[in-house]
Automatic annotation (TrEMBL):
Name of the protein: CPBP family glutamic-type intramembrane protease
Every CAAX prenyl protease 2/Lysostaphin resistance protein A-like domain range: 147-221
One GO-annotated biological process of the protein: proteolysis
Keyword Protease listed: yes
Highest taxon of the lineage: Bacteria
Range of residues in the leader sequence: none
Keyword Protease attributed: yes
PANTHER family reported in the protein's UniProt record: MEMBRANE-ASSOCIATED PROTEASE-RELATED, PROTEASE
GO molecular function terms noted in the UniProt entry: peptidase activity
Natural source organism: Polaribacter ponticola
Keywords: Hydrolase, Membrane, Protease, Transmembrane, Transmembrane helix
EC number: 3.4.-.-
Transmembrane segments: 14-43, 67-90, 110-132, 144-162, 183-200, 206-224
Length: 225
């Protein structure tokens, strides 16, 4: 409950929450989308082709995959910046109040979690290669590979940070202010966060059983706050 109580340290009238959500939407879906729209327009031969691609997927225009990934992730990065602006200047509270109930972020816990999960993923990946090598194909092209690595290391953390801080942080605190308890925001944010991943490719391939992972990890991580 200490984590949810961080919301009471600043401005927490309903209009502060609405204004911050609007700011995030503007940054994420409007300002952040400008570079992607400009790139799509550059790849389009005419307005009709651009409009059709906007309805389906801009990837159909032949945009470089790494460039497309970067532009998509850039939208999240701008959204994250606007979320932090909302916390600091609309709610008038410290930015780390959306991350932890402690005075400072405990980076030891962060690195412990990062290294633990990273080690587990590496081990499971190698086991997958050993047990089913036919499912893997070695395909190395240095230039796009290192560009992808750079994007993954620098930009993907910003995308995941927006998702986590918005749902498991901001929304959880906001619902907690209304509900005055921990369990209602825990359940609502975990379920909503999981359902929003229902359209992910892995869900289509592996089935809705993967939703147990998304929702379950939400419960687990939020219980640690």
């Amino acid at each position: 409950m200490n984590y949810i109580q961080q919301a009471f340290k600043g401005n927490n009238e309903w209009y502060h929450w609405v204004l911050t959500i609007v700011l995030v939407f503007i940054g994420w879906q409007i300002i952040g989308a400008i570079p992607l729209i400009m790139a799509a327009a550059a790849y389009s031969e005419n307005l009709t082709e651009f409009a059709k691609a906007a309805e389906d997927n801009f990837m159909s225009l032949g945009i470089n995959k790494n460039l497309f990934l970067f532009l998509m992730l850039f939208m999240f990065a701008v959204g994250l910046a606007f979320l932090l602006i909302g916390i600091k200047y609309v709610h008038k509270r410290a930015i780390n109040s959306i991350v932890t109930s402690r005075r400072k972020i405990d980076w030891k816990r962060f690195w412990f979690g990062f290294l633990s999960w990273g080690t587990l993923v590496v081990i499971l990946s190698f086991l997958g290669i050993l047990l089913a090598p036919e499912d893997y194909t070695f395909n190395f092209n240095a230039k796009p590979f290192f560009i992808l690595v750079t994007i993954s290391v620098l930009i993907i953390p910003l995308q995941t940070s927006l998702e986590e801080l918005l749902f498991r942080g901001y929304f959880m605190q906001g619902i907690g202010v209304l509900a005055k308890n921990r369990w209602i925001p825990l359940i609502i944010t975990s379920v909503c966060f999981g359902l929003l991943h229902g359209a992910n490719p892995e869900v289509e391939k592996l089935g809705y059983i993967t939703m147990v992972f998304y929702i379950g990890t939400g419960f687990f991580t939020e219980l640690l706050l």
